[in-house]
Design brief:
Length: about 325
């Protein structure tokens, strides 16, 4: 099916994708402003840390992946033990936070060390079930996944990697695509709500494993799909930026293959002259949500008759 769609011109794919989105979701388009970075549009101030990102490893990551080298962790709130984690969340809640994203650097097995924090998560959810806790796990053992489910986490985020060369050369891991596929199936079987992330341009900006990742995500029938666009966080001439044509085509095919699944354009995309065109292309390709949109994107959505709404929540939960 994907191979057949790849032969269709992008504009035709977008026409069908937008039709499907309108058929199943109407004219509503949400803009996610979780407050992990400072942001405001012409009318709406954003509240800092309304939905905060916490790293359980601070700025440390064993993998130093090629597109990040741990830089993304530096933007998160560090909480490297359970006591600090609990205090941090208590402070955030007292300041009006609606939830948290729990993440961190991965070990040499591609796993985020979450086990010490699970009892604290359980207590938080028992105390306030409405407080949202989502977890970016990396690869995860069955017993940890079961403990997170029992603790009541609201959602699991997992980067889906569809190419073994990308796993080796970007993530520096000795793993297979099947390891990510099996992890996603295991989490689904366990009853977790899933928001897998497909990184467009994952392999140094090249479109390589995205189509296989999309095929896996579609087959698992997840609750929502998050698309992000490669944004190298260090100065490295090895990386190129995916074109708006490439990002639009992947987004449109994602919608056509998943007509009733919410599709989000997540927080990460490059600060590039193409950014406006990428965001407009995402709208034309049928996304439900865009995180941190440019003002021109907001204006474009309004100009084509979409009803827009700002939500101070991680896009995967909307």
């Amino acid at each position: 099916m994907i191979n057949e769609l790849l032969q269709v011109p992008t504009k035709e794919l977008q026409t069908e994708a937008f039709r499907l989105r309108k058929l199943h979701f109407g004219n509503e388009l949400t803009f996610s402003i979780p407050g992990t970075v400072a942001y405001q549009d012409a009318t709406l101030p954003s509240h800092q840390d309304r939905f905060a990102a916490i790293s359980v490893t601070g700025a440390h990551c064993d993998l130093k992946c090629g597109h990040c080298e741990g830089k993304l962790l530096e933007t998160m709130i560090p909480a490297e033990n359970a006591e600090t984690f609990s205090r941090t969340v208590d402070r955030l809640r007292s300041q009006g936070a609606l939830g948290i994203l729990l993440s961190g650097g991965a070990n040499r097995n591609g796993e985020v060390p979450l086990d010490p924090f699970i009892p604290s998560i359980r207590k938080m959810k028992e105390m306030d079930p409405s407080f949202k806790i989502i977890v970016h796990t990396g690869l995860i053992k069955r017993e940890t996944a079961k403990a997170l489910k029992d603790a009541g986490v609201d959602q699991i985020l997992l980067d889906m990697i569809g190419d073994e060369k990308t796993i080796r050369e970007i993530y520096h891991l000795k793993k297979r695509v099947e390891d990510y596929e099996e992890t996603l199936f295991m989490l689904k079987e366990m009853g977790h709500r899933l928001a897998p992330h497909i990184i467009i341009g994952h392999h140094f900006g090249e479109i390589r494993g995205e189509w296989r990742a999309l095929e896996i995500v579609t087959r698992v029938n997840v609750e929502t799909i998050v698309l992000v666009i490669l944004k190298p966080l260090m100065k490295n001439n090895l990386f190129k930026t995916p074109t708006p044509e490439e990002t639009s085509k992947i987004t449109a095919v994602t919608r056509i293959l998943n007509p009733v699944t919410p599709i989000r354009m997540g927080c990460i995309r490059p600060a590039h002259p193409w950014k406006t065109e990428m965001e407009k292309g995402a709208i034309d390709s049928g996304v439900n949500t865009i995180a941190y949109p440019l003002q021109g994107t907001i204006d474009y959505a309004t100009s084509i008759g979409l009803k827009t709404e700002f939500v101070e929540m991680c896009c995967s939960l909307i």
